Amino acid sequence: MAGDAIRITFADGEPVEFLPLPGDSVLVAAEKAGVKLASNCRAGTCGTCHATGPGGAETALCVTPCAPGQEFALSYNRADLVPASLRRAKINSFSRISAGVWEIRYRMQFPLPFLPGQYVDFTFPGIDDPRHFSMSNPEGQGEQVIHVRDLPGGAMAEFLETRARPELAFSLRGPFGIFYLRRNPRPKLFVTGGTGLAPVLSMLSSLTAETAAPMILIAGFSREADVYGRAQLSDLAARLPLRVIFACSRAAPGFDGVAQNPVRLLEDPEIAGFAAGAEAYLCGAPAMVTAIRARLQEIGTDMRAVYHEEFSHVVPV
Ligand SMILES: Cc1cc2nc3c(=O)[nH]c(=O)nc-3n(C[C@H](O)[C@H](O)[C@H](O)COP(=O)(O)OP(=O)(O)OC[C@H]3O[C@@H](n4cnc5c(N)ncnc54)[C@H](O)[C@@H]3O)c2cc1C
Ligand code: FES
User: What is the per-residue pLDDT across 163-176, written as a single tens digit (0 to 9) for each?
Assistant: First the structure.
């Protein structure tokens, strides 16, 4: 292909090349050339189309204009892309599982294959735009589970407090996302903030003691009252080579975790030593993910093996 072709390399080294098209984003030019890449919002907000450009900077291919000779690296393999489908679903049950977190359990008419860690777009009755939520259950279960942050005044809180009921029908579309468990023998560090724990629970629940490498999970929460998942994580830690640390900088004396935020915890020499040789999975608020990535870079972690998902939110226009 001509020297001005755009070159994109998948994680396993498979390259694809296509010509830039004036006025199109890299994502659209790739699609016009028949190259399927991960995407969802196409507006630069969901993070699904992220790639690493020259100099290691992350960029959203859906809003990056084409230019001759561009080169990008992807963190996923082409074979891992699961096409998105639409499903009808019904709520089984829903409840608060901590002061700031709701759990919704639901079932679908037909199964929806996904990779542990991926998310789905939910359209609930009375909420105009789809909301992204990550499955916390492993693949292949009849009942699916999501964890929803309680944002007072938010559309989801209003729905759950006033209109949600068992058997209520809704639709969903997915799966999406490149934040999924890479099945390899590398030690793994997970750092989560709030409901960022949900996709990591899906990943951990998918592992067996025979296939899992040593793992550390730092589950961060801004308030002690928001902590959830204790029983499930205690079961996982009993059957997997997993150490779980709850981190909450505003915890009262007697808290069963550490009274620090996850970023500070990575200054602990033992945890920093583990992180330096581990693959890392980071999920939660954008500021936490950015701070942990910066710390991992200082520690010397291989940044090509640092996977992350920001639970960002942009009000659609
Ligand atoms: C890929 C992806 C996966 C996600 N998975 C999950 C998940 O598993 N669990 C989960 O709880 N969330 C998840 N989120 C975030 C979630 O989709 C949105 O935060 C949620 O739709 C907003 O809830 P709402 O509809 O009640 O708020 P809205 O009614 O839309 O907003 C209410 C108010 O809260 C603000 N707000 C909304 N969301 C956030 C936020 N995340 N941070 C700060 N302020 C916010 C809004 O700007 C607005 O002022 C994910 C986001 C992404 C991009
Ligand atoms: S598809 Fe590019 S950020 Fe959502």
Answer: 999 999 999 999 99
Q: Which residues form the pocket of ligand 2, taking CB atoms under 6 Å from any ligand atom? A: 39-42, 44-49, 60, 62
In this prediction the pTM is 0.95
For residue 127, the ligand 1 atom closest to its alpha carbon is: 25
Proximal ligand: closest to the CA of 26: 2
Same structural domain for residues 260 and 204?
Answer: yes
Query: Is 50 exceeded by the pLDDT of residue 287?
Result: yes
What is the Å distance from ligand 2's center to 62 Cα?
6
**Domain span at residue 201?**
188-310
| Domain contains 317 | no
Ligand 1 pocket test target in 178, 307, 311, 315 with most atoms within 8 Å of CB: 311
Claim to verify: residue 171 and residue 276 sit in the same structural domain: no
Residue of the nearest CA to atom 39 in ligand 1?
Answer: 313
Tokens of 26: 């890299």
- Please count the CA atoms within 13 angstroms of the CA of 179 that sit on its side-chain side: 34
Q: pLDDT tens digits for 176-217?
A: 999 999 999 999 999 999 999 999 999 999 999 998 999 999
Nearest CA among 274, 172, 282, 263 for reference residue 222: 263
Q: Is 13 left (phi over 0), alpha (psi -120 to 50) or beta?
A: left
**CATH for 197:** 3.40.50.80
SS3 306: strand
Dist. CA 223 → ligand 2 center (Å): 31
Handedness of CA 282, 287, 290, 293 (dihedral sign): negative
Please give all residues whose beta carbon lies within 6 A of any atom in ligand 1, as ranges.
Answer: 46-47, 119, 131-134, 146-149, 151, 153-157, 177, 195, 198, 309, 311-313, 315
Mean pLDDT of the chain: 95
pLDDT tens, residue by residue, 240-259: 999 999 999 889 889 999 99
| Ligand closest to CA 27 | 2
pLDDT at 211: 86
For 71, the enclosing helix (H) or strand (E) is strand 71-73
